[in-house]
Structure formats: C-alpha cells, structure tokens
Amino acid sequence: MKKIYLSVFLILTLAGYGQNGIADVTFDNADAQVQSFMNSYDIPGLTMAIAKDGKLKYLRSFGEIDKENNIETQPYNLFRIASVSKPVTAIGIMKMVQEGKIALSDKVFGSTGLLKDHPHISQVIYSDERLDVITVQNLLEHNGGWDSTIDCFPNPTTPYPYFFAGCDPINTTLHVTEMYDAPNPVTEELLIRFLMEKGLNFDPGTKYAYSNIGYLVLSEIIEEVSGMSYEEYFKTEILHPLGIYDMSLGHNLPENFNEREGKYYGYGGYTNKSTYGTGEDVPWEYGGFNLEAMDGHGGWIATARDLVKLLTAVDGFNTKPDILNASSIAIMTEPSAPFANYAKGWSVNSANNWWHTGGLPGTASILVRANSGYNFAIFVNTRIDGNRGGQFYSDLDAIGWNCINSITSWPDWDLMDTPTINAGNLETESVDETTVHLRWSNGDGQQRMVLARKSSSPKEFPKDGISYSYSNTLNQAEDLGNENFVVYQGTANEVTVSELESNTDYTFRVIEFNQSSNTGNFPLYLLGDNPEAEYKSGSLGLDVAQVVEFNIYPIPAEEMVKVNFKKSTGKKYEIYNLNGKVIASGIFKSTAQEINVSRLSSGLYLIKAFDINDNTSIRKLIIK
C-alpha cells in the first residue's frame, strides 16, 4: 500500500448486491464505488464502517455472507480480520508499556527475558545467542531477526506432498507437529519453538522482515505479564470497557463460529491437508490453516463498527477520549529505524496516516486512520491471489478514499453510540404451564429488547435503524424471522410472557439499545455477549425449597382478593402489569389477608408474594 485512502459507504439498491444498514441520500455516489469494486473481483460480501471526527457516520454492508442460502451481509456480521490483528496486539502492548508493566527495551528470551518463567518457551534449548537480545520493540517493528522469506523447509515439506517456500511455520502446521511428534492441531508455543531452534537470519534491530511468529511471541508476553489468556486480557482490560463486544478470537470450523459470523470463500477453491491431521484435503479457509494458533498475528474476528470503535480510542484525535496517552500514541506510530514505513503494529507514511491490511484464504481486510480525521475498516469474505492480488489490495484501499471524496455532506449522527454495558442476571420463573416471568439487571442502554424463540429455532437479530413492535403475548409479538419474537421493549427489568406452547424449550435474550438524537433517532443494538436464559414451559423454574405456597381467590376478582399462605408467614406482596412494572405493593400482617384491588383496571396481572425468608412465588391475578 503506497498511499492511504479513506472510506464511506452505501445506501441504495445496487444491481446484484443487496445493501443493509442505515442509509442516507448523500451516499449515492459512494454506492457506485463499492459496486464497481465488488463487480471487478466478484466479491460475495463486504462490510464497511467510517468514522469522521470521532463519530461513526457510515455503517453499511453489501452482498451475501452466505451465497448458498442467499443470506445477505449485515453490519452486525463478524469477519476474520487476519493481520489487522497485529495493530490490535500493538495496542495491548502499548497499554502495558504505558502502565509500566513492561518496557519496549525489555528482553524477551533468556534468563532475564519476560518469558523466562514461561512453562514452555523457557524450556526451549537454542543455539543462536542473538535470541537473548530480542526486545519487545524489535518484535513490534518486525526486526527481531527472523526472515520468513528465506526457505527453511524440506522439499517436499512432509507430510504435505508439496514444497512450502519461505519459513513461516504457521503455513506448515502438520510439518511442525510431525517434527516434534506432537498432536494436532499445532499450538502457538510449538510454532515459536520451531523458529527459536532454527535461529535468526539477521541481527535483531538491523533489518525489517515481516514476522507472524514475532506477533505470536507478543501474544505470549501479554499472557505472561497479565496472568490472563491473550483474549481475556483484551476483553477485560480494553474491549469491554469501551463497549466493544463484537471482537473475539476466531475458530477454524463453521460449527464453532460466532453466532453472527458468515462463510468464507477461498479464491480458486484451493485445498490443503487438514490442520487436524486427518489426512483429508479440506478448504484452506475451513481447517486448511489453523486460525486458532494465530492469536495476536491473525486470529481476531470483528464487526467493522467495533474495530473502528477501537481505532477511535487510540487515534490521537481530540474527539473522543483515547485509552493511550499522546506520548504512547506517538511512540506506537513512530517509524522504525530499519524501515520508515512501519512503526509498531502499523504501516505509516510521512502524511501521518496509519493502516494495516490483512488477508487469509477466504478473507481480506483493511483498517485505516487518516490524518484528516477519518477512520475506517473494510472487510470482505474472499481474497484475490495470484497476478491480481497486488491490484486487489490497492483497490480495496482506494474504495475507502474514493467513497469519502464523493460525499459532500455527512449526516449528523454517531452510529458508534451503542450501549457499553450489557444486561445481566437473566432469570426465569414459572407462573403457570404457558406463562413465564423474566427478570434481569439492566445495562446502560436507554432501552432494552427481549427476544423469545423456541430453542430449536435459528437465531435472528434486530437490525440497527429498525424499530420493532412487541407484545407480551407470544403469538401476537413481531417476528424478526425464524420465529424470534419481540416480547418486550422499554426501560423495565422484568416482563411476563404468556401463551407459550406447553412442554417446549425456549430461549430468552435481553438486548440493550440506544435511540436518541445522537443516533439519528435510530435504534442501535448491542448484540455481543447478551444474556440468554433457557426455559422449559410447564416446568416450575425454581427450587421447591425456594417457593412460597399460597393461594389467591376469588379469580377473577373485583374489589378485594384474599391471599392465604399454606405453610409460612407472609412478608410482602407486589402486583405487576404484564410489562413487568410494579403497580401496587404492600405488607402482609398475617397468613391470610385481603388486598384491595378496586383501583386496578380490568385485565391480567401478576401477584408476587414474599415470605419472611424472602422466598417467592408468582400467581396470575385477573381483575373483572
């Protein structure tokens, strides 16, 4: 990439490509840019997010995430981001440096290195003493001493029937496990050991040579210093505090994919021996390589919105607060001594643009921070190789800048303004055979939605920009698709859902969302890591020991209802409408008591009784 472009995205219906996401008439010219690119390379699906001055202005998706089943790409779909994982790792390392937990000058290997107590790496016996002088900075800048372009594998590279050029063991996982008589799939530590024992190709700090394994070592440093897994560290210390829930480490096989991750299409349909050692020839994108051993060099999956949200938190612009201070950002993006166009996890240029591209069979990606105040990410679910590969990445870069240049005015909204804290503690409590009461702790969304589906039904998700109607009565609720019903929307933290099918497994999900003038008055949904609860209709839903036994009569009631406790002493009661709102409450003074309900309108309510030990039960209350 010789110069950085920037991006914005689409709205109208383009021939052959479905578009999804919040639209604006100012994007018409940008639509043509994306259509032309996708047509040129036969791209199945594409998603793009563009932020301007710290606000997400464009969040759109195109084409199909699943061609075989004609499933259109949505902005909420997650894609593999491949080597765009490297700037993510660099952000984590720089945060540790800023907090004084490590230093860029710290040695990595040897008796004084950060990994001196690592249970596996510390046991590696190596002869090249130059390994002992590799620093954290060397690894970040790809000048640690390994050159993956220099051949090191035998011909053929057994057990593969062909030769692998270069020396990147992530491409030859079966060869590495064969060498060490180790099980498949390969581990990150074994890949690192392979290169440590091979030795270095040049003195650390003297030459730039792109190294995937160097970033695997950085992943191990993060784990060793934090005491957490690489992924857990990012989620706990960086991502979740920013409200980023749509980033995680990906998996090799579709059965383990994220619930909103789509398919990947390898250009040319090439296959490789399965990384699981089965001997099968499988698509590269589905087990032909081991994504689960890529971690900090290529393992992340993400939505375009959440990756741009992370970039906006380190971009150095005076728009939204950064998690790195100005000094850390300057160090992270300072060109390295051996190569002026690479800093620490970022390609850079003299215009103070930063970027990184990524590619694996079945995916290509780009992340850009431009000095003009734009940040953008573009993902596609294929990669073009061979003679057109170089031009493909140049054009992927260019569509962003061309789209931005084609937009003369931007809408006044921030599509990044999703909630930052999920709801939690979702619980179910049986009311009767076909009615369930749900309660949860609210997150920080302005409102929340509750979805109900039979557990056997495929999951569907609300789409940004679309408001849905709801009903507490299941068979009257709006269906998002595949019988995923909207049974509540509002600000409460409980709701009662009626008319379930008897003796049926259901799954309930609570989704926080924001909707305000800042979001363009569009609902923006937080879909990652939502709480879910399984429930079987007709079951009690509580331990018997926790249930208060009481009766209410008459049913239906008019002015008074009598409550009679069978075995315990009552403490208090609460009466709810079907939206889960408490509309009356009081104290019990005996095991049998009358409650005045004359002020309640005709309809169905719930009465919840507490005994002196705070055990509870719920009964239906019908008012004439």
Helices, strands, pairings?
Layout lengths: L18 E3 L6 H14 L3 E8 L2 E12 L4 E2 L6 E2 L4 H14 L37 H5 L32 H7 L8 H11 L13 H15 L3 H10 L7 E3 L15 E2 L4 E3 L7 E3 L11 H4 L1 E3 L1 H9 L13 H7 L14 E2 L5 E7 L2 E7 L4 E7 L1 E2 L5 H18 L17 E9 L2 E7 L5 E8 L23 E2 L5 E6 L3 E4 L7 E10 L9 E2 L6 E5 L13 E4 L6 E6 L4 E7 L5 E6 L4 E5 L6 E9 L4 E8 L1
Parallel strand pairs: 7-15
Antiparallel strand pairs: 1-3, 2-3, 2-14, 3-4, 5-10, 6-10, 8-9, 11-12, 12-13, 13-14, 16-17, 17-21, 18-20, 18-22, 19-20, 22-23, 22-24, 25-26, 26-29, 27-28, 27-30, 30-31
Helix pairs in contact: 1-11, 2-6, 5-6
Explain how this protein is built.
Strands 1, 2, 3, 4, 11, 12, 13 and 14 form an eight-stranded antiparallel beta sheet that branches. Strands 18, 19, 20, 22, 23 and 24 form a six-stranded antiparallel beta sheet that branches. It contains eleven helices and 31 strands. 48% of the residues are buried. By secondary structure, it is α+β, with helices and mostly antiparallel strands. β30 and β31 (616-623) form a beta hairpin.
List keywords for this structure.
18% helix; eight-stranded antiparallel β-sheet; disordered N terminus; 624 residues; six-stranded antiparallel β-sheet; alpha+beta
In angstroms, what separates the terminal alpha carbons? 73 Å
Low-confidence stretches: 1-16, 540-546
Which overall shape is indicated by the principal axes computed on the Cα atoms?
elongated
What's the number of helices?
Answer: 11
Mean pLDDT: 92
Largest sheet: 8 strands, antiparallel
Question: Structural class from helices and strands?
Answer: alpha+beta
How helix-rich are the residues, as a percent range? 10-25%
Radius of gyration from CA coordinates: 28 Å
Number of strands: 31
Share in β-strands: 25-35%
